Structure formats: C-alpha cells, structure tokens
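Q: Could you fold this chain for me?
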Amino acid sequence: MRAPTLLCSCAALLAALLQAQSPAPTPPPTYDPLAVPAAELPPSLEFTVHDRRRKRDVPLRVYLPTATDQAPLLLFSHGLGGSRDNNGYLGRHWSARGYAVVFLQHPGSDESVWRELPLAGRMAALRDAANGKNLRLRIDDVPLVLDALTRWNADDDHPCHGRFDLEHVGMTGHSFGALTTQCVSGQAAPFIGTKFTDPRIDAALPMSPSNTRAGSLATAFGSVAVPWLLMTGTADSAPIGDQTPASRREVFPHLPKTIDRYELVLDGAEHNAFGERALPGERRQRNPNHHRAILAISTAFWDTHLRGDPAARAWLHGEGCKQVLEPKDLWQVGERAAAGAPK
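A: Sure. Below is the predicted structure, expressed as structure tokens.
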C-alpha cells in the first residue's frame, strides 16, 4: 500500500521542480507620466491660419510626436503679451508622450503689444490689451484653428496630413490663455454671459484660472460639461486682470459635480511659474519641482481623459500624485457624481 503514496510524492516533487524552472510572471509596468522615449522628436513646425472674414492671421507652432499615426490633439493659448513660442517645455513633453500639440498666437494680445515700446510704456500697453474685444478675438481663434487643422489633416499634400486625432481634443492655456480655455470649454463668457463652447473639446486645463467678476459663479461655471484641471499657486497674483491667489481658487468649488474636476495649488508658485523664464517682478526663487509636478499631473490628466488609460486614472485619482508633489502643495480631486446623484 506504500506505492501510491510514493507515486504521489514523486508527482508533487516533479511539479515543484517545473514551477521553479518557469519564469516568474512579469509584473504590470508602473504608470509614470514623466517617462518619455529616448527617440529624438522632430523639429517643431510653424504655420499661419488666415481668417478672411476677420482679416486676421493666427500664427501657430506645432509639436508632433515621433510616431506618424494620428495623435490626440492639444491646443495651447498663451497669456497676455505672449506668443506661440512660450511654454515650449509643455509642447516638448506632451509631444514626446504621443500628443500633437498646437500653440496659438493671438494678435492684439500677443508680444506685438509691447515688443517695440520703451520699457516705461509696456505695462500701460498690456493693460489696454486686456479687454473684452481681445478676449472675443481669442475665443474665435480656437474654432478657426480647429477648422484649419481638420482641413490639413485631410490634405494629402500638407505636412500635418493624417497626424491629428480630432476625436480627442484637449484645450489649455495660461492666464489670458486660461480664460480663453475656460470660455471655449463651457464657461459663460464674463460680462456678456454668452457661451462659446466648442463641442470638439473633450477636456480643459486652465493654468492660473480666472473667476468671473460679473454675475454668479454658479451661473458662469455651472454648465461646464467636460473634465477640468485647474492649476495655480499660493502666490499666483498678476498686475493685470484683478485676480488674486484666492480668487483663482473660487473656480473649483463652483464646477458641477457631473464632471471630473481637479485642482493643483503649488506652494510658493507665482504667476509666471508656469512659464520657462523668470520675468520682471518675480519675487521668489523658482522651485524646479513645480515644472515636474505640472508635467506629470497634466500628462496623467490627458492620458485619463483623452486616451481613457485606466492606469493613468488610477495614478491621478489615487496616491500617484504624491510622488511628484511637495508637502505644502495642495491636490484636490472631485470625481463626477454617479447617474441620479444630486448635483
């Protein structure tokens, strides 16, 4: 009666040996929004979109990924007095992550406002340019550019032929560009209450957002229907625009609970922390971790809401952000309410 026992023991020993020789299962890769391929990116491209109706030219700078298939599209709107050449660190990183990134330049509120003036007259010129007319021009630039990109995407002879995934579009910008972003992605425009939402925009990232000085905040932001990520700093005030660090933080609590919404507040970050170079008036030494956090969290946001990447969403909604934030930075996540839940 000992033979079956011996056979069972041999079988168990053989199974154990086979298991020891089998390679261990490979763990799933860890999501890292800062990781980029080693391949060199192609040079950025310059174009100009002409609007016959408004007799207006809108310059563009386009960063394309190394892969030549269609890529989700990101649009960036510069701040007051800026240009398509600002914030290139964002374009380089996002394109390395597989996005097509288009930087708009808005005539009338771009660098042409101050570049030819003596130093003493520049601030007054910038103040004059921060007006409702230029905001409306900026707002109208966005669908103009999206229409042009749609044509170029279908044009066999254009350098951007077939490069844009126009079903997945993100909109972002800084300061005056943040307000532009807000107005084309769901906010009722200040002072006039009109909505200029472009339905092609799927997610929005205003950097240094603006609250509204006219009407109620609930009315201004209550109809936003796409995910928003707000980025600001504890020292994010500006000499033009009448916005303070506190007023910028009034946007997040008034976004509807029917969307995913996020707020990043970087400790000690001034208004220009979202740009690449220090500007006159900055009072603090720049913190290099601010750009690291901006790149990581923005990338996870795009990957979540333009690519539907579950690993990115887990990183964004879980503990992943703590890897790139410092102790005094503030990070808030408001997940969209389940269907039928109170608004």
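A (continued): The mean pLDDT is 89.
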